[in-house]
Write a structure and sequence with these properties.
With 724 residues, the protein is an alpha+beta fold. Helix content is 18%, strand content 23%. It has 14 helices and 37 strands. It has a 7-stranded mixed β-sheet. A 7-stranded mixed barrel has the order 28-35-32-33-30-29-36. Helix 1 packs across helix 3. The termini are far apart.
């Protein structure tokens, strides 16, 4: 820790709201921010040690009063030990993630476990000048100083190119914070001469391993991407390796030294002869993990004005080759991953998602299902734990074929669902579990309202894990690849078709036996109206082979009607927001325009975020360049053109434009169902208007009875047809 930490005082901290579940602490500079980050992490480590002495972990998913009762029981049993009681009552016990940046620290917390005001007081009370134990290391990065901007940087600084190299390699750098991309770390503390502006015109393609400068920072691009940093060299040292633990080579707090691996002046004389010579003895010459992955979203927000700060990534432990990934040189025996079903057509876009991950300090976004309630319901219906990976589709159109007896469920946006096969064609009329026989095909139509659906299978999909999660990260391209035609998929529990059928409850099996009925012969059965498929019986899985993750199978959940009141193209949806953290950067007229006009979701939208368009761009009061700071899902960032970008689950870890407001949790889930062409009105959750949860506003042609307030449970309707 630097001596500057002792100079940080509580009065120098500015606490800014970032939605209902996060605080942005603004400080005087990078040293103060890193001191606060280190102090918070030290406090959290001490709390984890104290909590580990409790008889069992506290479940933070239940309500506060329930947790309190359980905690008291635990503490009564250990009345002689005050540490567990202190740990449970400490405001930092509810902190879920801490993201340092250039002059801010983002603190995300569980509002059911931590009170915001108590957390602010606790942060103010931290001793930022005290000794903090750090487990940092020194990382040596071999560099060939052959960057395209080396001479330009020398001219900017008024020195020779040789001097730039000597100063860059002659001083130790300190890893400050992650961001921009998985494995990218902002390095600071180099030679004081370095204060270099970004390029006026960012490059569309920067190669992996490029060493650059921007402002007072240096860094190494971990993967090919666009970028505006001044490039002075290249390295073959991988910044991100999915088999390394942790996968990021450089962690916050590490010391980094750049080592020239050959005289740069020799390059000009022998550049052609040296092009094919390896520049480092310990470089890993293999295809980058990022480069081998197929682009997962053709419509990603890669041209965002803040693209230099975009961050998402993942560390993969590939437990199956069944999803068509080519992550590295390791080959997995295809015989261990026999296809249980095949994607015939993924529709507009389909990926694996679950509840996401927490690894922001490595530049990895949380990801996870865009509509958590629909995702959880899909797993509940087939008897899986609610966080089991499922397929998330956008825009409908998916078709798949099963190769053995399986139990599936489709949830989310109201959509036509049909099962076709030897027994004819059966329509699934609601959100429920249904049985499919070998050779049958599942077909999804196109959402009548809403945008995303979830497909869960009993036993769970055998998807690659990435830092403990199978969620695809569409911004960085890491994680499980997007599903493509012909993609074979395996189920995590391995059992043959006969055993699976024997384990299926009679009610489900009987409802699925369709060949004997007259209407089956006609080839068009409505399952859900004439053939309810609910049962409370258990569907038991058989232990899986060691190469697969086993998800404990429980019971089939209660069928639910399709959700009502979801957003639709051309209709207006109201989303509640909490102003801040940077609303003071906008004029009064800009704030008024945020709430008083409709915004249209453009086609340039995806899981990263929704690009919005309004007739009146938002006017800024403060036109300074904003230093990169932590970002959360639901943040509404305003780039220089004044048109908002509403971030969803694959949002960048850090951003470089001011965030005017953040969606509430219910509004964020509803935003995940917004289709292109939908219209939005924002409502101040803390303002004079009723601070209700986000709701869809029907068009003039709809009656008021079509209004439904979304919640963590699904909307109720008596209609047997999918209805909006």
């Amino acid at each position: 820790m630097t001596d500057a930490s002792a100079a940080v005082s509580p009065a120098a901290m500015r606490f800014l709201p970032m939605g209902r579940a996060a605080l942005l602490v603004e400080l005087d500079g990078l040293d103060a921010a890193m001191s606060l980050y280190a102090a918070i992490e030290a406090r959290r480590a001490a709390l984890r040690a104290a909590q580990s002495r409790l008889p069992h972990a506290v479940d933070r998913s239940v309500h506060a009063e329930d947790r309190s009762a359980h905690a008291e029981d635990d503490l009564d049993a250990r009345a002689g030990d005050a540490a567990p009681r202190t740990a449970l009552m400490d405001p930092f016990a509810g902190v879920t993630e801490v993201v340092p940046a250039a002059r801010t620290v983002l603190i995300r917390f569980d509002p059911l476990f931590t009170d915001r005001d108590e957390l602010v007081a606790a942060v103010r009370g931290l001793d930022l000048g005290g000794h903090v134990e750090r487990h940092a290391k020194t990382v040596t990065v071999p560099v060939v100083y052959d960057g395209e901007d080396l001479d330009a940087v020398a001219d900017l600084l008024g020195v020779s190119a040789v001097e730039v190299v000597n100063r860059h390699a002659g001083h130790a750098w300190t890893a400050a914070f992650g961001g921009f991309a998985p494995g990218f770390t902002y390095l600071t503390g180099g030679d004081p001469i370095f204060d270099v502006p970004r390029r006026a015109n960012p490059r569309l393609a920067v190669p992996a391993g490029a060493v650059g400068l921007a402002g007072t920072f240096s860094g190494v691009y971990p993967r090919p991407s666009s970028g505006g940093w001044q490039l002075i060299g290249t390295t073959d040292e991988p910044m991100w390796d999915d088999h390394r633990n942790p996968p990021a080579l450089i962690q916050p707090g590490d010391t980094v030294r750049f080592e020239p691996v050959r005289e740069w002046v020799a390059m000009a004389a022998s550049v052609d002869a040296d092009r094919d010579v390896a520049v480092t003895g310990n470089a890993v010459h293999r295809e980058s993990f990022c480069e081998t992955l197929r682009e997962t979203c053709d419509g990603r927000i890669s041209d965002s004005p803040h693209a230099h700060d975009a961050a998402d990534a993942t560390h993969g432990v590939t437990c199956s080759s069944s999803v068509g990934l080519s992550r590295d040189d390791t080959q997995v025996d295809d015989s261990a991953c026999a296809a249980d079903l095949t994607i015939d057509d993924p529709g507009m876009f389909a990926v694996f998602e679950d509840d996401g991950r927490r690894a922001a300090t490595m530049g990895v976004t949380g990801s996870g299902a865009a509509d958590p309630a629909a995702f959880h319901l899909a797993n509940e219906l087939v008897g899986n734990p609610i966080g089991t990976p499922a397929i998330e589709t956008a825009g409908g159109g998916l078709r798949l074929t099963v190769h053995r007896t399986l139990v599936l469920a489709v949830t989310g946006a109201p959509i036509d669902v049909a099962v076709s096969g030897a027994y004819g064609r059966t329509r699934i009329m609601r959100q429920e579990a249904f049985l499919m026989q070998p050779g049958e095909q599942l077909e999804l139509g196109f959402p009548q309202c809403g945008f995303r659906n979830y497909i869960a299978v009993q036993g769970g999909f055998d998807a690659p894990c990435v830092l403990g999660s199978a969620s695809a990260d569409t911004l960085s391209g890491l994680g499980p690849a997007a599903l493509t035609p012909g993609t074979p998929l395996a189920i995590a529990t391995s059992h043959d078709s006969d055993a699976a059928r024997d384990a299926v409850p009679d009610a489900v099996r009987d409802a699925a036996t369709r060949a004997s009925s007259d209407e089956d012969a006609a080839g068009d059965t409505d399952w859900g109206s004439a053939h309810p498929a609910h049962t409370d019986g258990a569907i038991l899985g058989v232990p899986a082979p060691v190469v697969r993750t086993v998800y404990t199978v429980l019971t089939v959940g209660q069928p639910q009607p399709w959700s009502a009141g979801l957003p639709a193209t051309g209709e207006v949806t109201t989303l509640d927001v909490v102003l801040g953290p940077r609303d003071d950067w906008f004029t009064d007229q800009g704030i008024t325009d945020l709430f008083d006009q409709e915004w249209t979701v453009t086609a340039q939208s995806n899981r990263v975020g929704l690009r919005l368009h309004g007739t009146r761009p938002l006017e800024r009061r403060d036109t300074r360049e904003l230093a990169s700071e932590g970002m959360v899902p639901g943040a509404i960032e305003i780039p220089s053109n004044g048109q908002p970008v509403l971030f969803l689950r694959d949002q960048p870890v850090t951003g470089g434009y001011p965030v005017i407001a953040v969606l509430t949790k219910p509004a964020l889930a509803l935003a995940g169902q917004l289709p292109p062409g939908a219209r939005i009105r924002f409502r101040n959750a803390d303002g004079p208007s009723p601070a209700t949860t986000a709701q869809a506003v029907p068009s003039a042609s709809r009656t008021s009875s079509s209004q439904h307030e979304p919640s963590q449970t699904q909307h109720q309707t008596q209609s047997k047809e999918p209805s909006c």
